[in-house]
Write a structure and sequence with these properties.
226 residues, alpha/beta, 6-stranded mixed sheet, 4-stranded antiparallel sheet, binds adenosine-5'-diphosphate, ATP-binding, ATP hydrolysis activity, transport, ABC transporter ATP-binding protein
Length: 226
């Protein structure tokens, strides 16, 4: 089964704007995949629908074989989502945020604490576990969002513009982390408008513009004629 299978997905927002014009997209298990395109192309809309943050229009979406319309809970469990905006309760402590998220996925308290520790350590936030999230730097907030998306150990991680606005050092360390995570078997899909990011990280790329997929191919092929 594919990690993600989108067929003829169309999205019209309430104001009548057609953000997706019937797109098809396939992502294999284990892939490191970029949805690349300029601002306003439809990247966030696409991944928002997959992550249940945006209502779907017509068409079908399957995640790890589960249909978004009929098996939404299974779809959610297969996914970890890193949104573009920092969206925590900012007065909550870092460790509690992760434990709470694990609880949301039904993990027992002991396992929830173990997972929180594991991912805080992996993302270099263990020292900050007792700090309120509003006190963290921008780069730390990004890493916390990644940790939160991973506590239930999903098969696929979705990141919306993960490195937008972060400095080059943090960007590089996030790239290293994601590469390692992918090497251990997690499928990764990210949106980006940086060609360089897609090129250096991802095996496969789809290019979206004005709500249409205009190319989908392995990175090497796509950039050959560049
Ligand atoms: P991208 O992530 O590629 O920058 P988006 O998916 O965020 O693009 O947006 C695609 C288009 O849909 C843009 O033109 C945007 O203005 C529009 N759009 C996004 N959200 C809404 C909304 N809630 N209502 C109306 N239009 C929207
Ligand atoms: P509601 O029950 O209010 O409709 P949801 O069940 O969709 O809300 O989501 C509850 C919380 O869990 C929200 O904060 C949402 O952002 C988060 N969430 C939902 N799905 C996921 C996911 N796949 N990965 C990470 N967080 C998620």
């Amino acid at each position: 089964t594919k990690a993600l299978e989108i067929k003829q997905l169309r999205k019209v927002y309430d104001n009548g704007f057609e953000a997706l014009k019937g797109i098809d997209l396939d992502v294999e298990q284990g892939d490191f995949f970029a949805l690349l395109g300029p601002n306003g192309a439809g990247k966030s809309t696409t991944l928002g629908i997959v992550s249940s943050l945006v209502n779907k229009g017509s068409g079908t979406v399957r995640v790890c074989g589960h249909d978004l319309d009929t098996e939404r809970e299974r779809v959610k469990r297969s996914l970890g989502v890193v949104p573009q905006e920092f969206n925590f309760n900012t007065f909550e402590k870092v460790e509690d945020i992760l434990i709470q998220q694990a609880g949301y996925y039904g993990l027992r308290p002991r396992l929830a604490r173990q997972r929180a520790e594991k991912y805080l350590k992996q993302l270099d936030l263990w020292d900050k576990r007792d700090v309120q999230s509003r006190m963290l730097s921008g780069g730390m907030k990004r890493r916390l969002m990644i940790a939160r998306a991973l506590v239930h150990e999903p098969r696929m991680l979705i990141l919306d513009e993960p490195t937008a606005g972060v400095d080059i050092e943090i960007r590089r360390s996030m790239w290293r982390f994601l590469t390692q995570l992918n090497a251990e078997g997690t499928t990764i899909i990210l949106t980006t408008h940086y060609l360089e990011e897609a090129e250096s990280l991802c095996r496969n790329i789809a290019i979206i513009n004005h709500g249409e997929i205009i190319a989908q191919a392995p990175t090497k092929e796509l950039l050959k004629g560049k």
